[in-house]
Amino acid sequence: KSLPDSILPKRLKNIMNTLTHNVYNYGCTGLFEKHKLLFSFNLTIKIEQAEGRAPQEELDFFLKGNLSLEKSKRKKPCDWLAEQGWEDVVRLAELFPAVFDSLPSDLEKHEEH
Q1: What is the pLDDT of residue 112?
Q2: DSSP character at residue 13
Q3: 105: which residues sit within 8 A by CB, 6+ positions away?
Q4: What is the distance in angstroms between the CA of the first residue and the CA of the last residue of the chain?
Q5: Where are the alpha helices (DSSP H) in 1-113?
Q6: Max Cα separation, the chain?
Q7: Is 78 helix (H, G, I), strand (E, B) or coil?
Q8: Residue 1: its pLDDT value, please?
Q9: What pLDDT sits at residue 41?
Q10: pLDDT in tens, 42-80
Q11: Closest CA to 72 of 89, 97, 96
Q12: Which of 46, 49, 87, 92 is nearest to 70 (CA)?
């Protein structure tokens, strides 16, 4: 049962939170233990997308990485990083420059570590 509240928006939020919790619990009863984490991730992503906090472009990159067949012109700076990993880093900087613009340069500066 959700918490009562005299203010309608708060009451609706309480109902939604209780319903989400109940859906999660009911959904988990029919799943094997190894599948519960994926169910939790999927439910969380759907909630975040509904709230506008998980843009589809970010989710696509997180799930798929760099799908481009074109190789970057920048040379991979370190041996410990796989070739595809470097391509992902470069593409990440291109897609989300506000956050990851300096990541390839930072890796190139610290290639020996």
Answers
A1: 61
A2: H
A3: none
A4: 55
A5: 8-29, 33-50, 56-64, 83-95, 97-100, 103-109
A6: 62
A7: coil
A8: 80
A9: 96
A10: 999 999 999 999 999 999 999 999 998 889 899 999 889
A11: 89
A12: 87
Structure tokens at 80: 């410990």
Give which of 53, 27, 51, 49 is closest to 38, Cα–Cα: 27
Residues in contact with 36: Cβ distance below 8 Å, sequence separation at least 6, in sequence order: 28
Contacts with 64 (C-beta within 8 Å, 6 or more apart), sequence order: none
Assign 63 to helix, strand or coil. Answer: helix
Q: Is residue 103 a contact partner of residue 93, using CB atoms and an 8 Å limit?
A: yes
User: How far is residue 84's CA from residue 64's CA, in Å, rounded to a whole number?
Assistant: 12
Structure tokens given for 33: 């233990």
* Digit-coded pLDDT (tens) for 2-50: 788 888 989 999 999 999 999 999 999 999 999 999 999 999 999 999 9
DSSP assignment string, 43-59? HHHHHHHHTT-S-HHHH
Question: What is the rounded average pLDDT of the residues 73-90?
Answer: 92
The confidence score (pLDDT) of residue 2 equals: 78
